[in-house]
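ok trying again, last paste got cut off:
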Amino acid sequence: MNDQEKDTNSIKDDKIQYHSTQYLNHCLMIQNKNLNNLLKLWLNKMLIQKNLKNMFQKLIQMISFPNIMDLIDPIESLIQKVLQTNVQFNIFSIVKMDSIPLLRYEALWIISNIVFETQQQIQIILDNDGINILFLGLESQYDEFIELGVWALANIAADNIKFRDMLLQKGILFHLKRIWKQQKKTKSELIKTIVWALSNLAKGKPTTKFGIRGLILILSEIIIRTDDEEQLIDSSWGLSYLVQDIYEIDMQIDKRLIKKLTVLLNSTKHTLITPALKTIGNILSGNDEQKNQVLQAGVLQSFEILLQHKCKSIRREVCWSLSNIVAGTIPQIKQIIRNDQLPKSLLKQLQLNDLQIKKQIAFFVSNSAIYAELIDLEYLIGSCKLIQKIQFEGKFAVYKQLIEDQKIIAKVIQLQSHPNDTIYENALKILDNLVIKDSL
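nice, full thing came through this time. structure:
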């Protein structure tokens, strides 16, 4: 599963035959006759016991196969016609029935297809107690029912942040955590669907404020416990969204999580590296304790290797992460600057024609100048030949402009009046270097 919405049409039921000539003829008949009257006839209570199974199959087929229905009407238009009959109320009633499991399953299938369409159509379902109806599917004894319910709810959550927050307020996290705990030792498709659904709940900006701690905890536990690649990708992406503003969340990060994410950085697959690196980078933008937890896991060794990675976006993320570390405490900054190989590998990125990487290096240099001790700053300049490297490349004006664009110089000027002597001296030093004449 990936970041895109899942089409519920991929769930198969051998009992339903979709591609018959009779089906196509029936769809054409619906188009040419009064759809409203036909649907009401289908759901007449007197016909439920005898004919509902066949009728449900036809309604499912009508909703679930846009390629065939392109011959008649766009799928959105056809679903809108169905909803205009208020047939959803009858379908909801079927979902609530204790008997005839197959009918309940097919009713749930219809709902799951409707919530894959437009916001307006999703809203109609939600306005008519659709969330609680789908929650009934999550309480079923059958995995097939549960998966349909999860799938539908996850698609709703991914549609927009209003729907996402509505589901969280209604308690979807409780249901998903319960099912995950029951299924976590299995390798079923259901457990993968659960993890994908949790990832969808983490998406969207602004980040949700409802149950964010619970989401962080469950996604962290999934990352720690699973070795399934698909689950690791979904859960890592989900967690990366939640910790974008980690400095606002006063909570301890599980040490086992950091270790597992660090292991993922050593993967040969960029699909695993990228979300793990995003998550670690976001945690490194947090408070000093959160930075310490990452550094103690040995992430710097992985960073050295990733700076040689063929993927530019991965190298760019590493540069950003390092710029966050050198905005931390003196001991944290020393771990970077006194690592002979890491700063040199970082500055080699200046040779690449990637503006975003150069911006992150500009942040790294300016943060080092502001927060590092003078002796460490001098070590960085001397060991890496930092100023000479920039000047001799003939690109000093470019890097200077990048720093000016980020308004870093204005911040450094303010630090000239800082009461701390080290910060004051560092501010003077960086200003001296940045006001070198353009001819240099």
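cool. The chain is about 70% helix and 0% strand. The CA atoms of residues 183 and 191 lie 6 Å apart.
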